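To: structure subgroup
Subject: Chain for Friday's discussion

All,

I'm putting the inputs and outputs inline so they're searchable in the archive.
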Amino acid sequence: MPERPIRLFGDPVLKTVSAPVEQVDDRVRSLVTDLLDSVRLPGRAGVAASQIGVNVRAFSYNVDGEVGYILNPELEVTGEKELIDEGCLSVPGLWHKTPRHPFAKVRGIDLDGNEIELSGTGLMAQALQ
């Protein structure tokens, strides 16, 4: 399936707490495909499921040529927050100084239920946060 449109600021789905993925089924597999298709477009480092209208805990990333996804991410951060120029696909055209930790790590699962971990600094840390 092609990429889904990004929901914009003001859309209620962006303010709704996302539910954990309880069971990996065809719906979740299709969501991951859509997330990966949506994040592959130029200028996109990360896309959360809520940004494409689905309130489950899932996101995709595209940093330095590495493209992937994580379901049910749990975030850990380290280091003092720094102000970094950052934009958001749901608020197009605006960039703001955003406080971000210099290192971030997420743990979650893949489509097979295997535990996975992803970590990084720089843009990867921003995308994970």
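Points worth raising on Friday:
The longest strand covers residues 66-78.
The first helix runs from residue 26 to 39.

D.
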